[in-house]
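STRUCTURE REQUEST FORM
Protein name: LLM class flavin-dependent oxidoreductase
Source organism: Mesobacillus maritimus
Requested output: structure tokens
Priority: standard
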Amino acid sequence: MKVSILDQAPIASGQTAREALLDSLKLAKAGETLGYIRYWIAEHHDLSGLACSAPEVMLSYLGANTTQIRLGAGAVLLPHYKPYKVAEVYNLLATLFPGRIDIGIGRAPGGSAEATNALSDNYLQQVWKMPELVTDLLHFLDDDYVTDNEYANLSASPIPEIAPEAWLLGTGKKSAELAAKKGLPYAFGQFMSERDGEVLVNQYRKEFVPRQAGDRSQVILTVSVICAESSDKAEEIALSSLVWGLQKEKGLGQQGVPSIKEAKEYPLTEKELDAIEKQKQKMIIGNPQEVASKLRTLQSLYQADELMLVTITNSLKDRIQSYKLVMEEIKKSSR
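Status: completed
Returned output:
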């Protein structure tokens, strides 16, 4: 089973954004040591408790401090940007770190309405132009990609020996259809989707149009996971993330991911308890054997080529331990 890491760069209670970003580096290095395939970092804007607004900056820092793990954005929120500039940035990263750079492409705003307006003009119009934006980006990442627009003879320098690997990210029908039409690998965000994901992934595979001979459909399934030595410990650790989700809905997320003690002391209404139970249904929480078993079930259900795990905890130690226990169990069960 291939497994990778999605990092949202969460800021813990009492922690600074700088400390959170340094934790992201430690996580990437740990992931490399443990044998994870990829480390992707998310892009968010003006969202309380999340530290990374510019993945491309972090990727250069991470690349300089790792040697093998693939690095990427999960995702570049393309409607905010000109495809040409995005291609220049990721071609430069791919030139610096050959064969290691991914570019996940997304269409979400990634933040508040105010942040969206501050970032880009006519965001909604750009969302409608997403197929065109993706076409332009693919051309700039690969000069052999056929296009007949005004940029047909324009290259995005520097041209790396190995182009960045483009993925389309999403949680809905439009993203699945676009990935299939453009012949792109697809990363489905199961952890944040309310939809019937198996149907969407099957639709993607059925409608997939290869860009060139040998291309095939590929699927990453992104799952929220909290693993600990025991089920009870995992539930205890997960409470921090679950309570933080409730706090963000109340506008209190700027306080950061609460400690286990703070989460336990947080007064929960019956409605909030129900919301937590509902949220847990979209997560995998448990000991290594339980987590690995559920991951295998999901992989089989989706026929996923790879699983990408997102783990939010107050403590970096707990976060790295979760990834460590999962990988150890996967390796053990594959012998």
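Reviewer notes: Residues 3-228+285-333 form a domain with the TIM Barrel fold (CATH 3.20.20.30). Strands lie at 3-7, 38-41, 70-77, 101-106, 165-170, 186-188, 219-227, 283-286, 306-310.
Form closed.
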